[in-house]
Every structure is written in C-alpha cells, then in structure tokens.
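Narrative progress, year one. The postdoctoral researcher (J.K.) led the effort to move from monomer predictions toward full complexes, under supervision of the PI. The following entry was the first complex the group processed end to end, covering 783 residues in total.
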Amino acid sequence: MESIDILKSQDHSSGRLLKDKLVLGAVIVLSLITISPIILIIWKLVVEGYRQISLDFLIENTPDTFEAMTAVANGELIPGGIANGIVGTLLMVILASALAIPIGILTGIYLYENQGSFMANITRDISDILQGVPSIVLGLISYLWIVKHITMGFSALAGSVSLAIMMLPMIVRSTEETLKMIPESLKEAALALGVPYHKVILRVLIPTGFSGLITGILLGISRILGETAPLMLTALGSSMINLDMTKPTSAIPLLIWEFYNDPNMVGLIWSSSLLLMAMILVLNLVSKQIVAKRR
Amino acid sequence: MTTNTIAEVKNPILSLNDLSIAYDKNYAVKNVSVEIKKNTVTAIMGPSGCGKSTLLRALNRMHELYENITTEGEALLNGKNIYEMPAIKLRRHMGMVFQRPNPFPTMSIYDNVIAGYKLNGIRTKKVERDEIVERSLRDVALWDEVKDSLFKKGTFLSGGQQQRLCIARALAFSPEVILMDEPTSALDPIATAKIEDLLVKLKEHYTIVLVTHNMSQAARISDYSLFMYLGELVEYGKTKNMFTNPIDPRTEEYLTGKFG
Amino acid sequence: MTIKKDDAINHIQADFEAFANLVLEQLDMMEQIVTSGEITVPDDVLKKILQNEKDIDKREVKLSDKIVNAIVLYKPVASDLRWIMACYRIILSLERIGDIVLNVTNFVKKIKTPEVYDRLKEVLSNMTIQSIKMVRKSLLSYLNDDREFAIWTIKNDVVFDEVNHKLLKKILAKTDTAESNKHLLMSIVTIKEMMSNIERIADHATNIAEAAIYSIEGKDIRHHKIDK
C-alpha cells in the first residue's frame, strides 16, 4: 500500500496536535488571569462582609461614629445598616431613569429616522463625547445647574441629573442600534397597512426592539448604580432616609466612601460593597432573562 | 411609445395617465399610461432597473418614503385620483405584499391578520374581529392549518405559510386591489405553486397587480402583462398574445433572453 | 439560460438543413427519372433513393425528439416558440414528400405502356420541376424569414392544381381511342383518385395512433416494426 506509506511519512499531524494543545493551554491560562480579579474581589467581599448582612443591615440607618467605635472596641458587629443609602440609591436611580429614558429613547428614534442628516450626525457625535466625559465633571455641571440655581443646596435631584446625563448616551446608542437592526420590511408592512408613521414607530418598531431597548436601559442603570464622584458634589449624603428630592440624600457608593474614611466604620465597607455587587448582578441576570423570554 | 394591444377597458379599476416618477430628477418611470381591468391578474415584468418596483410602489404611495421623489401625471382608483386622497386611506383600498414574508414578530397569528385594524386603533367588536380573521385565513387556505394555534406567534410557520399570512393580513381590509412585489421569489417551488394557485382564485374577488422577474410565472398566472424597459411601458396586452406574438422588438428581445 | 437555449436552437437548425437537403436530393433524383421519360430506373439511383429514405426516417425521429427537448427544457416563447413549432410542422411535410418520391419511383417501374408515358413526359416533367421549385422556395422562405417566397409558393399552388387538372383532360382528349374508352379512362382515373384519398384516411388514422403511443409511452414508433 504505497500510497498510505507516503501519507504517513508526510504526516505532520502529531506536531499540529501539540501546537493545538499549547494554544488551548495558553488561552485557558489567559482567560483565568482575566477573570481572576472578579473572583478575588467577590471572594474577599463575601468572606469579609457576609457576617454583616442581615435584615437590620437593610432596614436601619447608618450608625454614628461613636456607636461604631464602641462596637469595634468590644469586638462586636457594627450596629445599624445602610437603609438610607439603599433608599437614596433607589430614589436617584428612579429619578435619573425618569429623566434619561424618555429623552434617550426619543433621541435614539430621532437619530434612526434621520440617518444622514447633519443635525443627526452632530447629535450622535455629541452623545458619544458625552459618554467619555469624566463623571466628576458631570457632577460639577449638575452642581452648577441644580445645586446652585434650582435646589439652592445639595439635593437628590442634582445627583439624579448627573446620573441621568451619564445614562443618556448609552440609551441613545442602544435605541438607535436596536431600531437599525429591525428589518426594513416590518416598517414597510405596517406602512402598507395604512398605519401613520408615528404609530409605526410606537406600535411596531419599539415593541419589536423591546429587548434591545431594555438591555440598553438596564446596562445604563447598572453603570450608574456604582457611581460615586458626581454624587459627592451633588447629593452630598445623609445619615437619614430622605425622600425629598430637593434635599441631600445618601447613596450606597457614597456610604462606602464615608465608611472608608472613618476608621471606626471601615468594617462596613465589605458588606456594603457586597450588596452593591449583588444588585448589579441581579440586574444583569434580569436583563438576560428579558432578552431570553422575548425570543 | 407604448404598444397597447387591447381594446379600451370599460370601467378600469386602475387607470394610469402619463405617470412619471423621478428621484432627484432621474426618471425611474416615464409617462406610463395603462388601464387595469377589474378581477384580473396583471403582471409587470422587465429587466432589473426598469422601474417596475417603483411603479408598483407608486400605486399605494409607498414610494413617498424616499426623499426627493417627484410624481407627475395621475393615477386613478375607480376614478378617484390617488394622489389627492390621504395616503392612509388609500392603503386600505390597495393592499401590498412584499418579497420577504414579514409577519409582525411580536404579534400572534390572530393579531397579525387583524393588525391593520389594531395598529390603526380602529374599534371593532370581538365578533367582527373573529369573523375578519377567519374569513381572511380561509381566503388564503391557511385556516385549517392554523385554527388551533391562532394565538401562537407567527414565526413558527414555514416561509410559504408566513407569506400566506401576510396576504391574509392584506386581505383583512377587503381592499379592491392587491399589489405584490415578487411575492414568491423567496419561497421554495412548492410554496410558490400554492401561492400561484391562490392568486388565481383570489382574482375572483380582488384585482391583483404583481411584479415578477420570473417570466414563466407571469406566463403561468397572469391574464395581462406589462413589459417595462428603462422606465417606459413598452408593451401591454393579453399575456398569451404577448408571449407568442410580441409586437415591440424590445419585448421580443426580452422574452427570447437577449437581455435582462 | 439562454446560451443553452440558443445552442439547442442552432443545433436543431443545422440538423433541419441537413434533413431538408436530403429531401431535396431525393426530389432531384425524382426529377431526373421523370424528365428522362424512361420506364426503367437505373439501379444505382434506386439504391440511393432507398438509402436516403431510410436516413430521412431516422433523422425525422431524431429531430422531433430534439424539438420536444428544447420545448420542455428551455420553454421558448415568442419568435423562438413560433420557429420551433413551424420547424416541427415542416419536418412532417418533408418526410411525407420523401415518401412520395419513393412512391413515384415505384410507379414508374410499373408502367406497361412506354409510348403513352413518353407522350405525357412533358406534362409530368413540368409538374415535377414546378413542384420542386415550390418546395425549394418555401424552404428558403422559412430559413431566411423571406415572406415573398412564402407568398409566391402559396399563390402558385392554386394555379398549379388548376393547370394540371386541365392538362390531364386535354391529354385524354387527344388519346387515339373510342369516345367510350375515353369516358372509361376518365372514370378509372377519378375512381383511382378516390381510392388514394380514402387510403390516406387510413394513413392518417395510423398517424393518430402513433401519436397516441407517443403520448402514452413516450416512444416514437413511426417507421418501426411493431412487435407487440
């Protein structure tokens, strides 16, 4: 069987198999390196923070520094919780969403409708630039607009505005991209049925692109959940739960910063961070579920 | 110079008089004049770029989606100028079916059929809606296949079934004319055959104008044929005559495969 | 799509021209025989005629086949379709012309009275030459899309029939025999004509049956012996 011998002698497959294995090995190692920080972080948070998590943690306000000092001295768990931070975060996220979602979606629709126009291109470019503006600068802007001129003082509103500006480019982008991905033929089908254009957008395109839009919104929210710098210049923080948007309010990331700076309350940073991470994780899972259900 | 080989049509359902359509001064359709007879299947054929799709879309004013479109001449539906009535109203009398089946993915089969009413916010009683859905689905021979899954999404249907669903959706308004833009070119031969049979049946109650690049399809199912070339209506007549004895040499060349 | 169609049509045209030339060859030989006035046909000529006849039959079946294939595969329309359908009709007529040549040749051999034949030689020659001219012109009209030739042929046929009928009567009138014999001859001729026509009905019935077999089995059994 001459031909088979020739094939065998030219068989480089063993060399190639080895190469394959080496590359596979390298890829695995690099992937592990990439995901290791997250694993390490979550591990550290869980280990240090799980003890602090309880119902009280979620319901009670932050303790003052003396209570904390006493507890640490006695080797006890620091009393109190971060309810003021949780409520503050929720309040500001809801407000920011209420501001950013309508504007973002409408802008996204505008960009979709006017693909080539000069105005639209400028708008898109500005939106992209906005995405890159440092969050503390956005905090400053909100400070100037709201703190100085509207609420005459630090407030939840100011915080929400800065967060809204951060969310905006993401929502605009995802709305436009989602709409662009919808086949033109759906628009045509609806128009051919005599549906007026605005209804085509509202009742056909938006529902069809729903999962894309929601994903954009949830991503925006998960981004602002952890923002600290702008809130320091706008919401300031508070030791109590505050539902008045014209007054300062706390937020979880703000509290983490406060805990970090107070030697007595340092122990609370782990549980707070853990809670924050948990919220972000849940948000991501929910958005994935929505996308999956819509299929 | 159009060669028109049929006698005057009495009470044509569609009448085009010197219709011209230009994009940015480039004429895609030039001076088309033709009368379409009621309850017939009329095929519009011609090589790519001859203006047949533009002409079709001008009939339900979908061409107005594009910017810088100028329309000259007139088109009459049962004697009324379609450019002088609201486009939305016109489209209830002229349904359209597209090349790729496009049922609305977020709606069930039932809702898809009734979509024209729903999306327009037209109030209908449930009894009326049920009746419209059943009638339309029966008209396209889809009722028996889907009557037990009316509330499932339409996307699990085969391509041919989806296209029939789209036709049912167009029929829900009981339009006078159904415009079809290459309705079977994305379908397999069996689905195509089913839809061709359907069209021949539908012409009993509707008038069908269909654009096709498939000459054999035009030969198989149309009563009248329009041949367009470079935006002009070159010849119009009974299909069987045009296919055996075309008069204009350009028609002859197209049919014998010399171009297009 | 159209390259294959055009090729098919060109092949059919080439085969058709060869076929037509073969038939014209037969006609030329028939012209030779008739104009010579002899009642004996030279052996080599007879052999050639028989050979050609077999060839003609074979080619006719092949050509018909090619035409059917072209129609089913390429769905010709407009002028392509008309050309191919005309080709089919013409082939049938040409084949029948070939049969006639054979028949005429056989008839010549059966003539018992060479003197009578000699006297009618001129008439027969003229008829032959004229009819062959008609075939040539009509074929050219088809191959060259020449309307004039076609019209000439059709007009000529009417004249042809009339002239020949009158000629036959004249010849009989000149024959040196009793009046009653002349009537007898005329009647025999007329009855012979009737018989030939009736025989042609049977022939056509056979053609219909052969077409039915083609429809049922897809086999063209013309010119074949039927075993079943």
